[in-house]
Amino acid sequence: xxxxxxxxxxxxxxxxxxxxxxxxxxxxxxxxxxxxxxxxxxxxxxxxxxxxxxxxxxxxxxxxxxxxxxxxxxxxxxxxxxxxxxxxxxxxxxxxxxxxxxxxxxxxxxxxxxxxxxxxxxxxxxxxxxxxxxxxxxxxxxxxxxxxxxxxxxxxxxxxxxxxxxxxxxxxxxxxxxxxxxxxxxxxxxxxxxxxxxxxxxxxxxxxxxxxxxxxxxxxxxxxxxxxxxxxxxxxxxxxxxxxxxxxxxxxxxxxxxxxxxxxxxxxxxxxxxxxxxxxxxxxxxxxxxxxxxxxxxxxxxxxxxxxxxxxxxxxxxxxxxxxxxxxxxxxxxxxxxxxxxxxxxx
Length: 347
Fold this sequence. Notes:
This protein has 347 residues and is α/β, with parallel strands linked by helices. The chain has helices at residues 12-22, 37-46, 56-62, 77-86, 101-113, 128-138, 173-190, 285-300, 308-327, 333-339; strands spanning 3-8, 27-33, 51-53, 67-70, 91-93, 118-120, 145-153, 194-202, 214-221, 226-232, 241-248, 251-257, 260-266, 273-274, 331-332.
């Protein structure tokens, strides 16, 4: 069985998705939709076979799909998902699922009411380095983790060709477009939920972003694990500074580069030792693994990867952090979810 996709959105990430799908023998793009005729023309020059549409309505009406691949800005996802679910299509949607808790919860409830799979594109879970951290923590190779520090410092040129431009004007671009990945990785790799968060967000005077491009959080996870997180798109230097360090009772686990370079040491070791991991292409191979899992869900009925309820917990953490910044208080994350009417989606 070849899974036929309707792809919505042909921006930079959409083009990447098209290439990844084209590399797979058991999945194909049956049609694409984008509001920009030039993007459709560029796509057709590379991939002439799929049908092309300028509106979601006409693309859905044409039919012939097994699922939808939604690669559009998040503020339009609710309306798009409603149409796609009503057409009976499972969805693999790029993150974040929405820019408000209410919209995200509405999308998850739509998926469940239509009994259709919903996967969110949290592809960084599939990076070999992420899998390596998760494995070391789960097997307690260095004992129980006690505290961690996750640092991502970057000067991101939002005007660079090939990058989406909507983050330049959205509220909380760092939190909802970048930190959402990092906070999700913290939940996923440690295998624990966040119980409480204290957060500050801000924007330096030189920022090209209209709203907060800096995020700093103190996260308290289940079991007393504490994690400091700092992320920025407005660093004063173009060089990338990344480190994710986890201190455990008998050693330390350190990711020393973005997407790669995992090392560890026991407490008494003189130096870190590199942990062998697979050599894969960031953004490409991890996304391909996510797509494989989504296709398996459609074919075999296995649970969808990175499903809607799981993603809601990451989004709730993001919005609880925003509330912490707004109020100057530490926010209990499960209580935040209950206050926002998500009790039925917390399982």
